[in-house]
Amino acid sequence: MTTVFDQTGKDKRALRHPEKANRPDSPVLRKPEWIRVKAPMGREYSQTEAIVREHGLHTVCEEAGCPNIGECWTHRHATMMILGDTCTRACAFCNVKTGLPGPLDSGEPGRVGEAVARLGLKHVVVTSVDRDDLPDGGANHFAQTIEAIRKASPGTTVEVLTPDFLRKPGAIETVMGGRPDVLNHNLETVPRLYLTVRPGARYFVSLRLLERAKDLAPHGFTKSGLMVGLGETREEIMQVMDDLRAAGVDFLTIGQYLQPTKKHAPLDRFWSPAEFKALESIARAKGFLMVSASPLTRSSYHADSDFAELKAARTIS
Description:
Helix content is 36%, strand content 12%. By secondary structure, it is of the alpha/beta class. The chain has an 8-stranded mixed sheet with strand order 1-2-3-4-5-6-7-8, with helices on both faces. The chain has 11 helices and 8 strands.
């Protein structure tokens, strides 16, 4: 069962994560040097921000507090977040606002398409909050957004990073009917940690969604991502890699979990750059066409250049 919270008329900043208010505090550890990033600034950053604001859109870059926003927005790469800015889930790691979402905005797909054209994106990532309140989980809205992007910017390739659509029959079929170039769905962590880190999701439901996407579009690309630093072991990560390969997943991203606040899931440790390199080597040996593994790797980080490399890898193989 999913619990949602009505935030109407209340201080939304104070109640961004009402479900976490009574959790014990966990200290937010000081970041090592390899995690530090520059503060967002510059003309190009401001131009990207202006286009996002002008079209009344949300981005996961802002809502999830992504550390790469300065770099990405300077290159006019914004990851669009559709279906509103309020999630019906309460994942322990996530900084996106939790609550009772408003009604669907029917004009949002068109505005996303217009913004993508204005930004001049060759490749765009479209993600969303979880919308367990909707009969299809927002799947049709994804399909409409893909269509709107293709209409406004025909040369842009489209990557969708979707929820698991838990208990929404036909949802992934609807999304794949929009013919995305990449279907991305993150497993996020190892099965043992789902109950505490991702309680509203089910590990094997997520695996099945990725497998079904490949069944529906055998020549398309599928992608998934993991965080490290939540207490998982190297052996557990390798098992997840095997599960993803069995589901036909082409592209794996692995990044460092960064604890947003003292109320979020506690950080177990920072993995070193050398450890990320080792994970990348293991994943490539297991047969992934493309692997991105580094402390600052996120699902949409360098997604445009990674997509070009992904296509090239399939041609070579």
